Amino acid sequence: MLQAHIERDASVALYWDFENLHASLCEDRDPGAYARPDNRFRPQEPLVDIQAVVEFAASFGPIAINRAYCNWQFFGRYRDALLQNAVELLQLFPPGGAAKNGADIKLCLDAAEDIGRFAHIGTVVIVGGDSDFMPLSQKIKAAGRTLVGVGTRRATNRHWAKSCHEFRYYENLVEPLDTLAQDDGEGGADATTPPVPHVEADPHTELLRRAIRLLAEKKGEVWVNKAEIWPMIKRLDSTFDPKETGFTNFAAMIKAKEDMVEIRRGEFDQEVKLR
To answer: pTM to 2 decimals?
Structure first.
């Protein structure tokens, strides 16, 4: 009964070891820089693409928990991005001179408690690369939930990455998803076809583009079911309304975007891909 409920109403719990990710990106730019007190204990430059990670998590289902652990006193410049993506902030002051705030421990305890309390959580996404998350991995999988990890190439422990059902390197989330667009699954791309120049789209068109790209990446094919696009858009932006764009409904909107998408009849539903 519990497993059936999980599969029917599966939501996503997203947990961030935020300073770990930020520090990893700092180290990528300047090895050893973040460890220096004069760099660490001062306002931090925003480096993390919060929206890219949230959108990746949303591709697995509606996000029910979106919680980030950090000593936030130095991360005020992330304010707007955190608010726009509805991230719950958990403040962790370091208890001693070692400056380790114990975010990974608190994250593990909370995640283990949450999957025991909330039956609708079907997928758990952990943003962080520490091997300390491996016991949590075992708990999550034993509870019958799907575990997805996100971390940087440089700082991710390979045993932790392999313990996840799926692991995605952060660098791949923030890079353009061009590879799928080059192969439509019907014989490959035409090498003689020149690339289509990118034109800056309006926010609603760009939202549609992001939703289709996320679905295509998750499916591993460029063609996605038309019926899946609308739920994905609402996960990415719950305020979206086609009427605000001048269309009576979503079907009318997507039909009007023929310059951006191609539509064909699938086995059970219409299918859509980006041009």
So the answer is: 0.78
